């Protein structure tokens, strides 16, 4: 078995995998006014603001978000797209999604 497979073998949904955070501080509330993707994005933003996720740090993958929050891939993808549109993260093809440096105005720095 490859080393990576060994490191992640036995991890269950909601557990912390190597390099990932246990974000589900706030479970998805189906009765909330916010859509599930907005609730996930808010949880990731809280992790960024509390420095649990640092600038340059990898944001959990869509698959990890799906497992953590028990949502469909489309919901996880929409959450990441929302974070990207709001300037919290950037996605590098074949590498992942990372927290961006933001200036004092809350906009991503160039």
In short:
The protein is mostly helical and about 110 residues long. About 35% of the residues lie in helices and about 10% in strands.
Low-confidence stretches: 1-20
Q: What is the total tally of β strands?
A: 3
Structural class: mainly alpha
- Domain count: 1
Task: Specify the number of helices.
Answer: 4
Query: What is the succession of H and E elements?
Result: HHEHHEE
User: What do we call the CATH topology?
Assistant: Arc Repressor Mutant, subunit A
Q: For this structure, what is the CATH homologous superfamily?
A: Winged helix-like DNA-binding domain superfamily/Winged helix DNA-binding domain
Q: What is the residue-mean pLDDT, rounded to a whole number? A: 79
- CA gyration radius, whole angstroms: 14 Å
Placed side by side, the strands forming the largest sheet appear as: 1-3-2
For the record, the CATH class is Mainly Alpha
N-end to C-end Cα span: 42 Å
* Name of the CATH architecture: Orthogonal Bundle
| Secondary structure: helix percent | 25-40%
Shape annotation? globular
Major β-sheet annotation: 3 strands, antiparallel
Percentage of residues in strands = 5-15%
Give an overview in words.
- There is one protein chain.
- With 110 residues, the chain is mainly alpha-helical.
- It has a single domain, classed as Arc Repressor Mutant, subunit A (Orthogonal Bundle), CATH 1.10.10.10.
- It is built from four helices and three strands; from the N terminus they run H-H-E-H-H-E-E.
- A three-stranded antiparallel beta sheet has the order 1-3-2.
- A hairpin with a 3-residue loop joins strand 2 (89-92) and strand 3.
- The longest helix has 14 residues, at 36-49.
- It is globular.
- 20% of the residues are buried.
């Amino acid at each position: 078995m490859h080393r990576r497979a060994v490191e992640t073998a036995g991890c269950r949904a909601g557990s912390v995998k190597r390099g990932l955070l246990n974000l589900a501080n706030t479970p998805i509330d189906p009765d909330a006014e916010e859509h599930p993707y907005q609730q996930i994005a808010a949880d990731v933003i809280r992790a960024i603001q509390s420095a649990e996720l640092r600038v340059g740090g990898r944001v959990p993958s869509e698959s990890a978000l799906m497992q953590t929050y028990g949502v469909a891939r489309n919901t996880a993808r929409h959450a990441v797209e929302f974070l990207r549109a709001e300037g919290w993260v950037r996605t590098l093809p074949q590498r992942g999604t990372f927290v961006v440096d933001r200036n004092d105005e809350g906009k991503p720095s160039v």
